[in-house]
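hey so i finally got around to running both of the ones u sent me last week. sorry it took forever, my laptop kept dying halfway thru and i had to restart like 3 times lol. anyway pasting them below in the order u listed, first the sequence line then the C-alpha cell line for each. didnt double check formatting much so if smth looks off just lmk and ill redo it

first one:
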Amino acid sequence: MNALLGRLAQNELAGFILVLARVTPLFLLAPLFSSALIPPRVRGIVAVGLSIGLAPIAMKGQAIPSDGLTLAGLVVQGLLVGGAFALALAVLMAAIESAGALIDVLSGFSYGNLINPLNGESSAIMSRFYSLVGTLIFLVIGGDAWTIRGLGRTFALVPLTRGPRIGPLVAGAEHAFSEIFAAALEIAAPVLVALLITDVAFGVVSRVVPQMNVFAVGFPTKVAVALLVVGASLPFVGNWVSDQLSTSVGAALGALHT
C-alpha cells in the first residue's frame, strides 16, 4: 500500500512540474500576466495556483515518467508549448505598442520618454498610452479568461507526455512576427493619415506664406490633431483587439495541433 501511495504521489508531483513548466511562460510573455505592475512573487504564487488547478485536467489518464532525464526533456517541451502560446498573445500587445510608437515619431511625442509601468521600460507618450489602453481592453473583453481557457486547451492538443511538432510551431512564430508591423499600421492608420494631411497642408501654407514660422505653429497643431484622432479611433482599436485576440488564440492552438 505504501509503495502504491508513493508511486501515486510521485506521479502527481511529476505531472505538476510539467504543468507548471507550461504555465510559466504565460507569466513571462503574455500581456497582463507578465505585467511589471504585478510583483514577481505574486506572479509565482498565481502560476503555482493555476498549475494546481490545471493539473488534474492535464494528467487525466496519463502516466508521467519518473526518471530524471525523461522528465527534464518533457519540461523543456512544456516550456516550448507554453512559450509558443504566450508568444502569440505577446505579439498582439507588441503590435499595439508599435502603433503608438509610429504615432510618437510622426506627431513629435518621441522627443520625451516616460517609464511604461506595464513593462518597466522607457517609452514615448503614445506608446505608453496605447499599451495601457490595450491592457485595459484586454481586461474588459475577458482576455484573461480567453488566455486561461486557451492554455487549458493546449493540454488536449499536446498531452504532457508528448512534444509539439517543431515545423508548424516555427512557421506560426514566423507568421506572428511578420504581422506585427502590418497590424501596427492598421491600428495607427487613421492617425497617420491625419498627420500626413496636416503635414501637406502646412507645406502648402509655407509656400503661400513663406514668412510664417511653420515649425512654431505646426508642432502644437500636429499634437492636437494626433490627440483628436486617437480619441476618435479608440473604439476601432477596441474592436480590433477583440477580433485579433480570438484570432491569435486560434492560430496558436492551430500551430500546436498534432
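and the second one:
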Amino acid sequence: MKLYSSITVTVIFIAFLFLVTACSKRQIIYLPVVEDYLFAQNYDKKNLRVGVIAGPYGDMFMEAIMPPLERMGYTAVLIHYNDFTSPNFALAHHEIDLNIFQHYIYLGNFKFENDMALSAISEIPTVSMGIYSNKYRSVSEFNRGITVSVPDDFTNLARALIVLEDASIIKLSPFIDKSKATIDDIVSNPFQIRIVPIEARRLADSLGIYDVSVINGNYAVSNGLKLSEALYNEVLAENYVNVIAVRTEDISAPFVRDIINVLHSDEYKQIIINPDGKFADFQRPRSFVDRLKRRQVE
C-alpha cells in the first residue's frame, strides 16, 4: 500500500508540474494580429501626419497640396515642433509620415550625423533668408561694431554667413566649402560686426536686442516680417531650396506617389503663382520655373 501511495503522489506531482509549466507558457504566447501581415511598402496610408515648424509651410501643405489629396480620400493633421531637430527624429521614429520644413543641406547633414534613412521626395517653393533690422534702413547705414544675430545650428549659420557675404558685409575665405563656413572663416569684416549665434526661432524677437538679424524665411513670415522689409534677401542656391522628406522605406508608398503628382499639377502651381496669394514671393524651385516656361512656349 505504501508503494502504491508513493507512486500516486509522484504521478500527481509530475502532473502538477506539467500544468504549471503549460500555464506559464500560455502566459507568454502572443497570437499574431492583422497588422503583423501588412507590409509597410504595400500599406495604402490615407491618414497623414505632417511635421512642420513655425512658418508658412504648414499652410502651403494644407492650402495648396491637401485639397487634391482630400479628393483622393486622404486626411491630414499638422504636428507642430519648436525646433529644427524634432521633425526629423519624429519622422525616423514613425511618429509622423512626412515633414516639410528643411532644405537639402540640412537634411543631408542631419541624416548623416544621426544615421537616419530619410529621403527628399520633392522641392517646394521656399522663403529666402533675409537680413532685417529695426534700427537701419539699408546696409550702407551700418555703423562699425554693430551686433548681428544669426542661427546657431551648423548649416544655417553657414548659410547666414554666405548671406552676409553676398550683401558685402563680410568676406569668407575663398579656400573653404562655404556650406560649412564658421565665424572663424571670416577673412574680412570692414564693419567690425559682432556675430551672435542664437536659436533660429528666437531671431525675429532678437531684433529688439541686436542691431541686425539674419532670419530664416519661415521664422520671418511667422513673426509678421515682410520679405520687402528685408535689407537684403538671399538668392537661394539650389541646395538651400526646401524639400518634403519621408522615410526612405516609404519612398515608393502610394501616398508619396500621390503627393508628387499633386506637386506637378496645374492646380498646385496656380495657387503658388497667384500674385495675390501668400506664396507669390516665395522663390520657386528651378524645375518648377522650367515647367512653367515650357508650358508658356507650348
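quick thing i noticed on the 2nd:
Residues 44-126+240-297 form a domain with the D-Maltodextrin-Binding Protein; domain 2 fold (CATH 3.40.190.10).
anyway thats it, ttyl
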